[in-house]
């Protein structure tokens, strides 16, 4: 009798160990899948950023007579784009700020263009509605 009980106990223990191992394997597989998904998402984000950078580089400068460099500032309501004339590389934000008078949301978007000009070290002398 005792031997049978011991054998049953051993079998139960073995089954439990097998179940635990299976659970651990499943957990590991799930973790690996999650990591792979995260890596894929990161790769997609990097690709999108690269595409955006390439698109920005591909935009040719406008063919207006005196425009040396320009920044396009896109405004959602009302939809229009401003072409900023940049004659030299000095920052003169006051001229930009004085030129634009718009609603709150528009002002934010204009400021982002402004900040880009500042970051690039550009001075905006005038703007024209395109």
Structure explained in plain terms:
- This protein has 130 residues and is mainly alpha-helical.
- It has two domains: 1-59; 72-129, no CATH class.
- It is built from three helices and three strands.
- The protein has helices at 2-58, 93-99, 104-120, and strands spanning 72-75, 80-85, 126-129.
- Strands 1-2-3 form a three-stranded antiparallel beta sheet, with helices on one face.
- The model is unreliable at 60-71, 74-83, 88-109 and 123-130 (pLDDT under 50).
- Residues 1-60 have a biased composition (Acidic residues).
- Residues 1-69 are annotated as: Disordered.
Give the tags.
single chain, rod-shaped, 11% strand, disordered C terminus, 3 helices, 2 domains, 130 residues, mainly alpha, 3-stranded antiparallel sheet
Topology summary:
Blueprint: H1 2-58, E1 72-75, E2 80-85, H2 93-99, H3 104-120, E3 126-129
Antiparallel strand pairs: 1-2, 2-3
What integer is the average pLDDT?
62
Number of helices: 3
Q: Rg from C-alpha positions?
A: 31 Å
Which strand order do you get reading across the main beta sheet? 1-2-3
What class would the helix/strand composition place it in? mainly alpha
β-strand percent reads 5-15%
Number of domains: 2
What is the number of strand segments? 3
Largest sheet: 3 strands, antiparallel
Which regions are unreliable across 5 or more consecutive residues at pLDDT < 50?
60-71, 74-83, 88-109, 123-130
State the share of residues found in helices, binned by percent.
55-70%
Helix and strand string, N-terminal first? HEEHHE
Give the overall form: rod-shaped
| CA(first)-CA(last) distance | 97 Å
């Amino acid at each position: 009798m005792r031997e049978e009980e011991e054998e049953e106990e051993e079998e139960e223990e073995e089954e439990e160990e097998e179940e635990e191992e299976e659970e651990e394997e499943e957990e590991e597989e799930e973790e690996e899948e999650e990591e792979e998904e995260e890596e894929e998402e990161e790769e997609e984000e990097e690709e999108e950023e690269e595409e955006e950078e390439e698109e920005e580089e591909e935009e040719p400068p406008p063919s207006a007579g005196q425009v040396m460099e320009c920044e396009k500032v896109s405004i959602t309501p009302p939809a229009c784009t401003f072409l900023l004339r940049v004659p030299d590389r000095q920052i003169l934000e006051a001229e930009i700020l004085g030129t634009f008078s718009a609603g709150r949301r528009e002002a934010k978007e204009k400021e982002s263009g402004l900040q880009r000009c500042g970051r690039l070290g550009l001075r905006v002398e005038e703007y024209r509605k395109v």
